[in-house]
Amino acid sequence: GAVVSQHPSRVICKSGTSVKIECRSLDFQATTMFWYRQFPKKSLMLMATSNEGSKATYEQGVEKDKFLINHASLTLSTLTVTSAHPEDSSFYICSARRVTGTDNYEQYFGPGTRLTVT
Amino acid sequence: AQSVTQPDIHITVSEGASLELRCNYSYGATPYLFWYVQSPGQGLQLLLKYFSGDTLVQGIKGFEAEFKRSQSSFNLRKPSVHWSDAAEYFCAARGGADGLTFGKGTHLIIQP
Q: A6-19 burial by CB neighbour count: b if 16+ within 10 A, else e?
Protein backbone atom coordinates (compact mmCIF):
# COMPACT_ATOMS: atom_id res chain seq x y z
CA GLY A 1 0.00 0.00 0.00
CA ALA A 2 0.85 3.72 0.01
CA VAL A 3 1.77 4.14 -3.63
CA VAL A 4 2.32 7.53 -5.20
CA SER A 5 2.52 7.97 -8.95
CA GLN A 6 3.69 10.83 -11.11
CA HIS A 7 2.90 11.59 -14.69
CA PRO A 8 4.66 12.04 -16.96
CA SER A 9 7.92 10.41 -15.98
CA ARG A 10 9.78 12.45 -18.57
CA VAL A 11 8.81 15.53 -20.53
CA ILE A 12 10.61 17.73 -23.00
CA CYS A 13 9.13 21.10 -23.79
CA LYS A 14 10.14 24.19 -25.65
CA SER A 15 11.13 27.37 -23.91
CA GLY A 16 8.13 29.58 -23.24
CA THR A 17 5.58 26.81 -23.02
CA SER A 18 3.90 25.44 -19.91
CA VAL A 19 3.99 21.89 -18.65
CA LYS A 20 1.82 20.15 -16.07
CA ILE A 21 3.02 17.37 -13.79
CA GLU A 22 0.55 15.20 -11.92
CA CYS A 23 1.04 13.56 -8.55
CA ARG A 24 -1.46 10.94 -7.43
CA SER A 25 -1.85 8.93 -4.27
CA LEU A 26 -3.20 5.65 -5.58
CA ASP A 27 -4.42 3.85 -2.48
CA PHE A 28 -4.84 6.50 0.19
CA GLN A 29 -6.16 10.00 0.57
CA ALA A 30 -3.71 12.81 1.03
CA THR A 31 -4.86 16.21 2.21
CA THR A 32 -1.26 17.32 1.99
CA MET A 33 1.29 16.73 -0.72
CA PHE A 34 4.75 18.17 -1.13
CA TRP A 35 6.70 19.17 -4.22
CA TYR A 36 10.49 18.89 -4.32
CA ARG A 37 13.03 19.84 -6.91
CA GLN A 38 16.33 18.09 -7.42
CA PHE A 39 19.12 19.65 -9.44
CA PRO A 40 21.71 17.36 -11.05
CA LYS A 41 23.99 15.85 -8.41
CA LYS A 42 22.27 17.94 -5.77
CA SER A 43 19.95 17.40 -2.90
CA LEU A 44 16.19 17.72 -2.93
CA MET A 45 14.77 21.10 -2.08
CA LEU A 46 11.25 21.52 -0.81
CA MET A 47 9.40 23.85 -3.16
CA ALA A 48 5.93 23.97 -1.72
CA THR A 49 3.32 22.30 0.40
CA SER A 50 0.09 21.53 -1.41
CA ASN A 51 -3.10 21.43 0.64
CA GLU A 52 -6.34 20.02 -0.69
CA GLY A 53 -8.91 22.72 -1.23
CA SER A 54 -6.66 25.63 -0.32
CA LYS A 55 -3.70 27.57 -1.59
CA ALA A 56 -0.29 26.04 -1.61
CA THR A 57 2.41 27.26 0.74
CA TYR A 58 5.63 28.08 -1.06
CA GLU A 59 9.13 27.99 0.36
CA GLN A 60 11.19 31.11 0.37
CA GLY A 61 12.67 31.86 -3.03
CA VAL A 62 10.17 29.78 -5.02
CA GLU A 63 8.14 31.81 -7.51
CA LYS A 64 4.50 30.95 -6.96
CA ASP A 65 3.44 32.50 -10.27
CA LYS A 66 5.90 30.31 -12.13
CA PHE A 67 5.19 27.07 -10.29
CA LEU A 68 1.42 26.80 -10.04
CA ILE A 69 0.13 24.15 -7.69
CA ASN A 70 -3.41 22.85 -7.62
CA HIS A 71 -4.59 20.24 -5.13
CA ALA A 72 -8.14 19.77 -6.35
CA SER A 73 -8.88 16.39 -4.81
CA LEU A 74 -7.68 14.16 -2.00
CA THR A 75 -5.66 12.06 -4.42
CA LEU A 76 -4.32 14.53 -6.96
CA SER A 77 -1.96 17.48 -6.90
CA THR A 78 -0.61 19.14 -10.01
CA LEU A 79 2.44 21.29 -10.57
CA THR A 80 2.40 23.52 -13.63
CA VAL A 81 5.65 25.09 -14.71
CA THR A 82 4.58 28.19 -16.61
CA SER A 83 6.60 29.85 -19.35
CA ALA A 84 9.33 27.31 -18.88
CA HIS A 85 12.97 28.20 -19.43
CA PRO A 86 16.04 25.98 -19.68
CA GLU A 87 16.94 26.79 -16.08
CA ASP A 88 13.69 25.12 -15.01
CA SER A 89 15.05 21.80 -16.28
CA SER A 90 15.21 19.54 -13.29
CA PHE A 91 13.92 16.42 -11.58
CA TYR A 92 10.64 17.14 -9.82
CA ILE A 93 9.51 14.76 -7.09
CA CYS A 94 6.26 14.82 -5.19
CA SER A 95 5.33 13.16 -1.95
CA ALA A 96 1.98 12.54 -0.33
CA ARG A 97 1.41 12.62 3.38
CA ARG A 98 -0.61 9.87 4.95
CA VAL A 99 -1.87 9.98 8.49
CA THR A 100 -0.77 6.83 10.31
CA GLY A 101 -1.87 7.66 13.82
CA THR A 102 -2.50 10.48 16.20
CA ASP A 103 0.02 13.17 15.32
CA ASN A 104 1.85 10.63 13.21
CA TYR A 105 2.45 10.96 9.50
CA GLU A 106 4.34 9.22 6.78
CA GLN A 107 5.46 10.71 3.49
CA TYR A 108 5.44 8.56 0.40
CA PHE A 109 7.39 9.66 -2.63
CA GLY A 110 6.53 9.47 -6.27
CA PRO A 111 9.09 8.25 -8.81
CA GLY A 112 9.82 11.74 -10.08
CA THR A 113 9.43 13.64 -13.35
CA ARG A 114 12.40 14.63 -15.45
CA LEU A 115 11.70 17.98 -17.12
CA THR A 116 13.92 19.19 -19.93
CA VAL A 117 13.30 22.60 -21.42
CA THR A 118 14.92 23.22 -24.80
CA ALA B 1 17.44 27.54 10.69
CA GLN B 2 16.76 23.86 10.33
CA SER B 3 19.45 21.93 8.51
CA VAL B 4 20.76 18.48 7.79
CA THR B 5 24.43 17.94 7.09
CA GLN B 6 26.05 15.01 5.37
CA PRO B 7 29.77 15.74 5.59
CA ASP B 8 30.87 13.14 3.04
CA ILE B 9 30.05 13.85 -0.61
CA HIS B 10 31.60 10.62 -1.84
CA ILE B 11 32.51 7.42 -0.06
CA THR B 12 34.25 4.42 -1.62
CA VAL B 13 33.98 1.06 0.08
CA SER B 14 35.14 -2.38 -0.96
CA GLU B 15 32.47 -4.98 -1.49
CA GLY B 16 31.98 -6.94 1.72
CA ALA B 17 33.38 -4.17 3.90
CA SER B 18 31.41 -2.29 6.50
CA LEU B 19 29.86 1.09 5.84
CA GLU B 20 29.01 4.15 7.89
CA LEU B 21 27.45 7.27 6.42
CA ARG B 22 27.36 10.32 8.62
CA CYS B 23 24.45 12.67 9.22
CA ASN B 24 24.08 15.58 11.60
CA TYR B 25 21.02 17.71 12.12
CA SER B 26 20.27 21.12 13.53
CA TYR B 27 16.72 21.57 14.71
CA GLY B 28 14.97 23.34 17.55
CA ALA B 29 13.73 20.05 18.94
CA THR B 30 14.51 16.46 18.08
CA PRO B 31 13.06 15.99 14.62
CA TYR B 32 11.85 12.89 12.93
CA LEU B 33 14.84 11.44 11.06
CA PHE B 34 15.04 9.42 7.88
CA TRP B 35 17.48 7.78 5.50
CA TYR B 36 16.58 7.41 1.84
CA VAL B 37 18.40 5.78 -1.06
CA GLN B 38 18.17 6.92 -4.65
CA SER B 39 19.48 4.98 -7.62
CA PRO B 40 20.38 6.93 -10.79
CA GLY B 41 17.33 8.53 -12.36
CA GLN B 42 15.03 6.96 -9.80
CA GLY B 43 12.81 8.16 -6.99
CA LEU B 44 13.50 7.79 -3.32
CA GLN B 45 13.26 4.63 -1.31
CA LEU B 46 12.93 4.83 2.45
CA LEU B 47 15.58 2.77 4.25
CA LEU B 48 14.61 3.53 7.81
CA LYS B 49 13.26 6.19 10.13
CA TYR B 50 13.49 7.32 13.72
CA PHE B 51 10.59 8.89 15.55
CA SER B 52 11.23 8.02 19.19
CA GLY B 53 12.14 5.13 21.47
CA ASP B 54 15.00 2.76 20.76
CA THR B 55 17.87 4.76 19.37
CA LEU B 56 19.12 1.92 17.17
CA VAL B 57 16.80 1.58 14.23
CA GLN B 58 16.72 -1.35 11.84
CA GLY B 59 15.79 -0.81 8.23
CA ILE B 60 15.53 -2.63 4.96
CA LYS B 61 18.38 -4.17 2.98
CA GLY B 62 20.42 -4.81 6.14
CA PHE B 63 20.84 -1.14 7.05
CA GLU B 64 20.64 0.28 10.54
CA ALA B 65 21.05 3.74 12.01
CA GLU B 66 21.78 5.04 15.47
CA PHE B 67 20.32 8.23 16.86
CA LYS B 68 22.64 10.08 19.24
CA ARG B 69 21.00 13.10 20.78
CA SER B 70 24.21 14.34 22.40
CA GLN B 71 25.90 14.50 19.02
CA SER B 72 22.82 15.50 16.98
CA SER B 73 23.67 12.61 14.72
CA PHE B 74 21.86 9.85 12.90
CA ASN B 75 24.53 7.76 11.17
CA LEU B 76 23.67 4.96 8.78
CA ARG B 77 25.54 1.66 8.95
CA LYS B 78 25.73 -1.64 7.17
CA PRO B 79 28.04 -4.46 8.25
CA SER B 80 28.79 -5.76 4.75
CA VAL B 81 28.04 -3.87 1.56
CA HIS B 82 27.05 -5.39 -1.76
CA TRP B 83 27.71 -3.97 -5.22
CA SER B 84 23.98 -3.25 -5.50
CA ASP B 85 24.26 -0.78 -2.63
CA ALA B 86 26.01 1.72 -4.89
CA ALA B 87 23.67 4.71 -4.98
CA GLU B 88 23.03 8.15 -3.55
CA TYR B 89 22.04 8.23 0.10
CA PHE B 90 20.10 11.06 1.66
CA CYS B 91 19.56 11.83 5.29
CA ALA B 92 16.42 13.86 5.97
CA ALA B 93 14.55 15.39 8.86
CA ARG B 94 11.24 16.97 9.56
CA GLY B 95 9.53 18.61 12.46
CA GLY B 96 5.94 17.56 12.94
CA ALA B 97 3.93 17.44 9.77
CA ASP B 98 6.24 19.63 7.70
CA GLY B 99 7.99 18.82 4.48
CA LEU B 100 11.38 17.18 4.68
CA THR B 101 14.74 18.90 4.89
CA PHE B 102 17.35 16.85 3.07
CA GLY B 103 21.08 16.67 3.40
CA LYS B 104 23.15 17.09 0.25
CA GLY B 105 23.57 13.39 -0.15
CA THR B 106 26.47 10.96 -0.05
CA HIS B 107 27.43 9.12 -3.21
CA LEU B 108 28.43 5.56 -2.37
CA ILE B 109 30.85 3.77 -4.67
CA ILE B 110 31.49 0.06 -4.24
CA GLN B 111 34.85 -1.30 -5.29
CA PRO B 112 34.99 -4.95 -6.39
A: beeeebebeeeeeb
Residue A45 pairs in a beta bridge with: A37
Query: What is the phi/psi pair of residue B79, to 5°?
Result: -70, -30
Longest dimension (CA), chain B: 42
Cis peptide before B7 (omega within 30 of 0): no
What is the 3-state secondary structure of B56-78?
A: EEECHHHCEEEEEHHHCEEEEEE
Please state, in angstroms and rounded to a whole number, the distance separating the CA atoms of residues B74 and B86.
20
- pLDDT tens for each residue of B92-104: 998 766 889 999 9
Measure A2 CA to nearest chain B CA, in Å: 12
Cβ of A43 within 8 Å of Cβ of B97? The answer is: no
CB A1 within 8 A of CB A100: no
* Rounded Cα–Cα distance for residues B50 and B62 (Å): 16
Position A46, amino acid: L
Calculate how close chain A gets to B101, using CA atoms only, in Å.
Answer: 7
Over residues A81-102, mean pLDDT: 92
Whole-number Å distance between alpha carbons of A104 and A83: 38
Q: What is the pLDDT of residues A33-81, one digit of tens each?
A: 999 999 877 789 999 999 988 899 999 999 999 999 999 899 999 999 9
